[in-house]
Amino acid sequence: MSFLPPTSESCSLFCNARLLIFCGVVLLTALTGCKSLRPGGKEANIAAVRDLTYHGLNALHHGRADQAEDLLQQAAEASPEDQRIRQHLAAALVQQGEVDEAIEQLKLAIEHSRHDPRLYVELGELYLAKGQPGLALQHAMVALKIDRQMCGAWILRGQCEREQGDHRAALASFHRGATFECAGPDVQFELARTYQKMQRPLQTLTALEMYSENFAADQLPMAAVMLNAETLTNLKQYRQAAEYLASASRRSDATSDVWVGLSRAQQLLGDQSGAQLTARSAEHKFPGDPVIAAWVQTLNSGADQPPAAERTAALPGGIFQ
């Protein structure tokens, strides 16, 4: 077979083809970035985002919220449409008190989540924490419109209704949330808080008893401990309240409120010296605590003393003994 030398026309076609290929490569690079043209570029970016997220969550878990924010912010910039990263970033911001910025991150997460109802609940909880129950309630209702069996949304709805003073509606919302399998013990605590607002102490104690069944005796959250003690005090069961708080004060996580509550219960029993001793111990344990300082001032002034007839050993029993 003989070789024919190229003609000027064939050379021109060949050059044009090479020019078109070159232009196509340049255009593709401009549109996608040169990293995308390297083998493994996209995979490397995914791995980097995953690594940043992992270390950010690890920092958040260990209480290093500022470090977590920095790492998760980098992850969010590298993967701006990942709702979970923005959700974690919001949590880091909340731990640092940056609630407004956390709200903005959750708004972005919702935009990229196709309206995940859990994110509406988280956003509503932040609005409630900011003292905006009306706005929080709107987000709870949106979440319930998406998923009527979402326990967290019913709890948020009840919290908002209680904050707005509609206690009966709040009870209905909490009871509705308690009917679903996803309901945890928190709904019982919310019921107890609502009954306490309605000045129904026996129902408060019953709800607290149901709530406490989910915890070991020395692991009941301090908020529940204080609510129980306050309810016993309102029932004038001062001795039960004092014994209960004395036990709670021996816990490593006992707060200054527990010690103040114990001192007050002792005072209400007529044990002024015991109340003074407890107050001094609290001052030593929590130096500079404003709650204790205010109570010591009240105690020394002789205020908050009940009539002698009310200083009683109280009714027998006490469901939390």
Could you give a quick summary of the protein structure above?
Helix content is 72%, strand content 0%.
List the helices and strands and how they pair.
Blueprint lengths: L7 H25 L1 H4 L3 H21 L3 H14 L4 H13 L3 H13 L5 H13 L3 H14 L4 H13 L3 H12 L7 H12 L3 H12 L9 H13 L3 H12 L6 H13 L3 H14 L4 H12 L20
What does this structure look like?
The chain has a domain at 217-321: Serine Threonine Protein Phosphatase 5, Tetratricopeptide repeat. Helices cover 72% and strands 0% of the residues. The protein has helices at residues 8-32, 34-37, 41-61, 65-78, 83-95, 99-111, 117-129, 133-146, 151-163, 167-178, 186-197, 201-212, 222-234, 238-249, 256-268, 272-285, 290-301. The longest helix has 25 residues, at 8-32.
Low-confidence stretches: 1-5, 9-15, 17-40, 311-321
CATH architectural label of the domain at 217-321? Alpha Horseshoe
Mean of pLDDT: 84
Radius of gyration: 31 Å
Question: What key phrases describe this protein's structure?
Answer:
0% strand, 17 helices, 321 residues, mainly alpha, Serine Threonine Protein Phosphatase 5, Tetratricopeptide repeat, disordered C terminus, globular
